[in-house]
Amino acid sequence: MFPQLRRLAAAALAAICSCAALAQTTDAAREKRWADQILPGLLVGEAIYLESGGGRKFLALYTPVERGKGAVLLAHGPGLHPDHGITGELRMHLADRGYSTLSLQMPVLPAELDDGAAYQALFPEAARRIAAGMKFLQDKDARRIAIVSHAMGSGMTYAFLRANADAPLFAWAALSFYGGFPELARTGFPILDVYGAADYRGIRGAAGERGQVLRLRPGSRQLAVPEGGRFLAGGEKAVLREVAAFLDAAAR
Predict the structure, then answer these.
(1) CA–CA separation, 139 vs 132, rounded Å?
(2) Distance from CA of residue 57 to its chain's centroid?
(3) CA 170, 233, 213, 149 torsion: positive or negative?
């Protein structure tokens, strides 16, 4: 009896948590705290606010480059902000390499709910933010747009691309993508799939499946960064180098 009761209690608790996660929208207070933290020290680029629908506005960091090679939209990892870690490094490095960059504040959950499964409830809002970012860049006369995404930002980008297979992209660099992306086998832009040699098991374990898709797409490739740990920690220099080289090749 007692083991059965424990299992039933655990199942009930999981159901309650699942319902709570599904009811979640972005944590606006957490987004504001991130903005209050990063904007006073912003040295490169400018802070703008875009609208994702229904009057909801979100932060983005825009670094324009005149007569550049194209524009890159950046999507960061879970619970973070548009200038965090490797995303912040990419937005500045790629601007130095001739690309206008737009780093979006992706929707976030409260810190106590930072969980991959729970974040799926935010994918529709994430897709609206990506669409708003692309429209902003198009309004700035960007003729070539790529997306570079990291961790949960890659999952959010994939959800957007599944629903928008005709999105006008010239490339997508997916960093530490979890799982596979079979639905993208027939889309027209090349993909760079980068993960750490010591990345999470769900990222490394599905690399073969992703590789099968990439072999069908001209210009696409896959890279396991030897020094990259979880979410590519420690492999940032290699990521900056490889992403820039990939975008340069795709933009030709």
Answers:
(1) 10
(2) 18
(3) negative
pLDDT for the residue numbered 17: 40
Domain assignment of residue 173, given as a range: 26-251
Closest by Cα among 197, 199, 220 to 210: 220
Q: How many domains are there within the chain?
A: 1
Q: How far apart are CA 221 and CA 241, in angstroms?
A: 14
Task: For residue 41, list its beta bridge partners.
Answer: none
pLDDT band at 24 (very low <50, low <70, confident <90, very high): low
In a domain? residue 15: no
In a domain, 8, yes or no: no
Burial (CB < 10 A; 0-12, 13-18, 19+), residue 6, is exposed
**Which of 195, 101, 79 has its CA nearest to residue 147?**
101
At 127-173, the pLDDT tens digits run 999 999 999 999 999 989 999 999 999 999 999 999 998 899 999 99
Residue 139 Cα distances to 104, 145, 172, angstroms = 16, 12, 20
**Sign (positive/negative) of CA torsion 207, 213, 217, 218?**
positive
Residue 246's identity, in one-letter code, is F
Q: Is residue 12 part of a domain?
A: no
Instruction: Identify the CATH number of the domain in which residue 130 sits.
Output: 3.40.50.1820
Task: Give the Cα separation of 163 and 55 in Å (integer).
Answer: 23
